[in-house]
Write a structure and sequence with these properties.
Elements: H1 3-30, H2 37-55, H3 58-66, H4 72-90, H5 93-115, H6 119-140, H7 146-151, H8 160-183, H9 196-209, E1 219-221, E2 227-230, E3 233-238, H10 245-263, H11 280-294, H12 298-312, H13 320-327, H14 341-360, H15 368-380, H16 406-425, H17 429-433, H18 439-448, H19 458-465, H20 474-487
Parallel strand pairs: 1-3
Antiparallel strand pairs: 2-3
Helix pairs in contact: 1-2, 1-3, 2-5, 5-6, 8-14, 8-20, 9-10, 10-11, 11-16, 12-13, 14-15, 14-16, 16-20
Function: Broad specificity carboxypetidase that releases amino acids sequentially from the C-terminus, including neutral, aromatic, polar and basic residues.
GO biological process, one term: proteolysis
Family: Belongs to the peptidase M32 family.
Length: 490
């Protein structure tokens, strides 16, 4: 075997073990008995120790030095392996294992604190997570800030400075649109009886229509919806609320976008570094375009209105137009995942600034809840009523995902660019959506984004999909202005 072949054989086993580790996390979020938390923490730590040893194996460096890429795909494989190897070597094995153990346990502590609206019960554990993440960042950082070192795990090539400039460019337009909408005529929401089993039946139907292959996946319930896995085992979760069927519907469509990305990657890349999404920003571009530009479009809402009436009977809105307004209504609220398209990115900006301060050491965990509440009041104009609607609503910090949040907004920006290119390439997309058929749109996304997996760099794959046009906030902001100015005429 050549050095390249030996390296790829080693990498396939590493990738397979990483998938097993991911399955442990899926199990913990869905069906693991509550009393197993401490044992699962040890199991997660043991798996991370094995993975870290494989990623830092001296032979990997030797193979990389000797390997010759057989083609462009091989060169991309080597680039991704080298990046992962270089990063893994900088983090001590003891730290990687300790983080895996802690974040597995921390997730359960967060869930209980959230259920009890008790940030103080979670704060000591979060302090330890932040401490270890700062240690990890310090080990990784070379001529970059601690935050940029962590951000690179989720969006290679991005920096906090780049994101700050992007968000400052977006903020005035978002604030102006929100003001216009909230001062306009309020759209009515849906009302009626929405049994959980009927919501889940519709969720399964929607996932299938958007291309999710349930022979290679499954749909389960979780407190915080997520997607897990790649290749032939990609699992999604959703949640139901008796008075809000949109929570289930759009969480499912969102996670289906993530899952279709992973299922749609070229099978030749399976169990290699190219066999998964290239970044969380590109990943979010898929989930957000599925959920918003397709799933909340006027055309798709016309079809969905009929489905809702058929399954639930009277849903409290009189016609398709009223239903479309209900789906897209701008309203006061606390929860990021339930926010409308206008306000969603403002939620992300809040989290981005707070986690930067935590990582930099400018904000102590003990002061986080007060800082959150103060910032929320400033940005949204009303106070947080309880911790589960504020600082405890998201799982991310409990599992050490610092640097993850801004990729949600970056995904929205990418989705805006892709939507513009998609509609130019598939001009009859709305005619299909009106029949409940996202197929042509999904196929375009598969062909232009999903099948490539990790072959290209994040901005590169979006640029290629958009015919050479570099990603920017312009298409997203234009889409939002057109949509919400029409919904809320001045």
């Amino acid at each position: 075997m050549s050095a390249y072949d030996e390296l790829m054989a080693h990498e396939r086993e590493t990738q397979a073990l990483a998938q097993v580790a991911g399955r442990l996390s899926w199990d913990q979020e869905t069906v693991m008995p509550r009393g197993a938390a401490e044992q699962r923490s040890e199991e997660s730590g043991a798996m991370e120790a094995v993975l870290h040893a494989r990623r830092t194996d001296p032979r990997v460096g030797e193979w990389l030095a000797a390997a010759e890429a057989p083609d462009e795909v091989g060169a991309a494989q080597l680039r991704q392996i080298r990046r992962a190897h270089d990063r893994a070597r900088k983090v001590p094995a003891e730290l990687a294992t300790a983080l895996a153990r802690l974040t597995s346990r921390s997730q359960g502590v967060w869930a209980e604190a959230r259920a009890n609206d008790d940030f103080a019960a979670f704060a000591p554990t979060l302090e330890e997570v932040v401490r270890l993440k700062r240690e990890e960042a310090a080990a990784l950082a070379e001529n970059v800030t601690l935050y940029d070192a962590l951000l690179d795990d989720f969006e290679p090539g991005a920096t906090a400075a780049m994101l700050e400039a992007l968000f400052e460019d977006m903020r005035p337009g978002l604030v102006q649109l929100r003001k216009r909408a909230l001062e306009g005529v309020a759209a009515e929401g849906v009302s009626g009886e929405f049994p959980a089993e009927v919501q889940l039946s519709l969720a399964r139907e929607l996932a299938g229509r958007f291309g999710y292959d349930r022979t290679r996946g499954r749909l389960d319930l979780a407190v915080h919806p997520f997607s897990s896995g790649s290749g032939d085992d990609v699992r999604i979760t959703t949640r139901t609320a008796a008075d809000d069927p949109f929570n289930c519907i759009y969480s499912t469509i969102h996670e289906t976008g993530h899952a279709c990305y992973e299922q749609g990657i070229d099978p030749a890349y399976r169990l290699t570094p190219l066999g998964q999404g290239v970044s969380m920003g590109v990943h979010e571009s898929q989930s957000r375009i599925y959920e918003n530009q397709l799933g909340r479009s006027p055309a798709f809402c016309r079809w969905l209105y009929g489905e809702m009436r058929a399954r639930f009977g009277d849903i409290g809105v009189s016609d398709e137009e009223a239903f479309y307004r209900a789906v897209n209504r701008v309203h006061r609220g606390y929860i990021r995942t339930e926010a409308d398209e206008v306000q969603y990115n403002l939620h992300i900006m809040l989290r981005f600034d707070l986690e930067k301060a935590l990582v930099a050491g400018d904000l102590a965990v003990r002061d986080l809840e007060a800082a959150w509440n103060e910032r929320f009041l400033k940005d949204f104009g009303y106070p947080v009523d309880k911790a589960s609607n504020g600082v405890l609503q998201d799982v991310h910090w409990s599992v050490g995902l610092f640097g993850y949040f801004p990729t949600y907004s970056l995904g929205n920006v990418y989705a805006g660019c892709l939507n513009k290119a998609l509609r130019a390439a598939v001009p009859d997309v709305d005619a299909h959506l009106e029949r409940g058929d996202p197929g042509p749109a999904v196929e375009w996304l598969h062909e232009n984004v999903q099948r490539h997996g990790g072959r290209y760099e994040p901005r590169e794959v979006i640029t290629l999909a958009c015919g050479g046009e570099e990603p920017s906030a312009g298409p997203l902001m234009g889409y939002l202005a057109d949509k919400f100015c029409a919904l809320y005429p001045g």
